[in-house]
Design a protein that fits this description.
Mean pLDDT: 90
Largest sheet: 7 strands, antiparallel
Radius of gyration: 17 Å
Oligomer: single chain
Distance between the termini: 32 Å
Low-confidence stretches: 203-208
Strand content: 25-35%
């Protein structure tokens, strides 16, 4: 593929009615075409062999952050947070940075301040869990929303309110080759978010 064709491909952010953020693009072969929807399945914990209901949602850019915001509202207060970063990774693996027991309104305020980072940086992700550790809402580097909970119905209701339909045959962007995007400004913003959350010391030691 020529440089011009690759640039044109990367600049394309719309597939039908679905809009991508700047964080990720499908590979040029388009083995998976980005589509809105969600599917339900079972996650098997490889350590405990426990089976946990889960859903994976691919949501168009214009409502993605609102869906995530509405879902974490369901977790109660306070919540635990894990920030995920692959900024310094040469292998694409991410490093987890944890903050326990933060008030949900405080977290939501911080997330609104860093909405651009969370939506458009392909090396930043976040997971929010209830205090009991029984429910988790993950907003990953690919800008998929992944929910783990014994009761998925409240989260499915959020998706329905935003017009996101269930499709258990849905293929998401992580199931084929894809491209991540980031820059130095986003790396610095991620560090600032860590400072806001009180985990700046952890990020200093997150080196690959």
């Amino acid at each position: 593929m020529t440089r011009l064709k690759l640039t044109t491909h990367v600049e394309q952010d719309r597939y039908g009615d679905f809009y991508l953020t700047d964080a990720v693009r499908p590979a040029p072969d388009l083995a998976v075409i980005p589509t809105e929807g969600y599917r339900v399945g079972i996650f098997r914990d490889p350590c405990s062999d426990n089976r946990i209901p889960m859903l994976v949602a691919s949501v168009s850019r214009e409502k993605l952050f609102d869906v995530f915001h509405d879902m974490i509202e369901l977790l109660g207060d306070p919540v635990d947070v894990i920030l995920e970063t692959s900024h310094d990774s040469s292998t694409g693996e991410h490093h987890d940075l944890c903050r326990d027991g933060i008030d949900l309104p405080v977290l939501q305020s911080y997330l609104c301040d860093f909405e651009d980072l969370l939506l458009n940086d392909g090396c930043s992700g976040i997971a929010v869990m209830n205090e009991e550790g029984t429910c988790e809402v993950q907003f990953d580097e690919h800008k998929l929303i992944i929910v783990y909970s014994a009761d998925l119905q409240p989260y499915m209701n959020v998706l329905a309110r935003h017009g996101v339909r269930r499709d258990d045959r849905l293929k998401v962007i992580t199931e084929a080759e894809h491209l991540h995007s980031t820059n130095q400004a986003y790396r610095e913003q991620f560090h600032e978010l860590c400072c806001r959350l009180g985990i700046a010391e952890s990020i200093e030691h997150a080196r690959w």
